[in-house]
Design goal:
There is one protein chain. The chain has helices at residues 13-22, 52-59, 75-85, 122-141, 169-175, 195-203, 226-237, 248-254, 259-266, 275-280, 290-302, 312-328; strands at residues 2-6, 26-31, 43-46, 64-69, 89-95, 109-110, 145-149, 153-154, 180-183, 189-190, 193-194, 214-217, 224-225, 243-246, 271-272. It is an alpha/beta fold. The strands form five sheets. Strands 3-2-1-4-5-7-12 form a seven-stranded parallel beta sheet, sandwiched between helices. Strands 6-15 form a two-stranded parallel sheet. Strands 8-11 form a two-stranded parallel ribbon. The chain starts with a strand and ends with a helix. Helix 3 (75-85) links the parallel strand 4 and strand 5 (89-95). It is 39% helix and 17% strand. The model has no long low-confidence stretch (mean pLDDT 97). The longest helix has 20 residues, at 122-141. Bound molecules: NADP nicotinamide-adenine-dinucleotide phosphate. NADP nicotinamide-adenine-dinucleotide phosphate binds next to loops.
Amino acid sequence: MRVLFIGGTGFISAAVSRMAIAQGFELYLLNRGSRIAHLPGSHGLTADIHRLEDVRAALQDLEFDVVVDWIAYTPDDIERDMALLRDRVKQYVFISSASAYQKPPAHYLITESTPLANPYWEYSRDKIACERRLMQAFRDEGFPVTIVRPSMTYDTNLPIAIGGWGSYTLADRLMTGRPIIVHGDGSSLWVVTHAEDFGRGFLGLLGNEGALGQAFHITSDEVLTWNQIYQAIAEALGVEPKIVHIPSDYIARVAPQLAGSLLGDKTWSVVFDNSKIKAFVPGFQAAIRFRDGIRRTLAWFAADEKRRYVDEAVQAEMDRILEAYAQASG
Ligand SMILES: NC(=O)c1ccc[n+]([C@@H]2O[C@H](COP(=O)([O-])OP(=O)(O)OC[C@H]3O[C@@H](n4cnc5c(N)ncnc54)[C@H](OP(=O)(O)O)[C@@H]3O)[C@@H](O)[C@H]2O)c1
């Protein structure tokens, strides 16, 4: 199968790319080449997706069984993709987000039929608008879309709510004995999925005709509290965490840039019913427990100092929230 990933070297997609190559897919990766210059076994196409002429030149007259756009966020991105790919793809996979599911949830257990509505987070509303446009194209013109909604997925990133997405900042705080923030009382339920587990389900959808016009989430069945997640990270680092619990509403008030992600996502307990992906991809079952997966993530960071980037702006913001909360609570 000839497959194009737009992106393909990111936090979720790098692992999926490696697995696709190992499974014998003829894989093309279109990105700017700034994260991973070349993934052995893939065909690299270098272009910025927002520079259409460069993208057209890179794609030439290639046709694909499957195109996955890992980095489409707005309906404009979707219009661009449809115009570019309509005549050269048999399946187009849109990477949405599980944050699109109804917030607050009417029921803790999420299936693909759970309504999509998120008044708190623009990112999620944009993903919902993308899904709606694609399903309209599926109905009106048979555009061969499959929608995949990852929930929090990790590999070379720490799966956390506060502390800097994609950096080592939270681990650095833990290692240096500084306090960390856990929203609420840390007892709400959350699910984190290793990118390789996600990939096992995901690759089974590619070239799967039954998956056209369908949406899926692909997650672990392991349900954790946020306290357990941060405890497991600290334990893997060999330190005792200094956790400060702060209500989400308060954090959202003093750090409004965190409001969408917290109030529109991480504040609410979510558990995913994975029956649908298991029915479409027989044998799929997430296998990596968080306490093992996070050790792999931290070993990846430990292997190269350059990976352990600490975001000083995030450090300062966490200190500011902690100080404000300490003052407010006397
Ligand atoms: N991780 C999660 O927990 C989670 C949860 C829900 C949804 N999602 C969704 O998953 C997707 C992210 O997937 P990911 O983790 O693999 O991505 P990512 O870590 O954001 O990586 C981005 C990828 O796209 C490439 N890229 C970025 N800007 C580009 C541009 N202008 N032109 C061409 N290529 C570009 C990057 O390579 P270069 O920098 O070299 O170009 C890289 O390959 C998003 O759609 C997100 O909404 C993720």
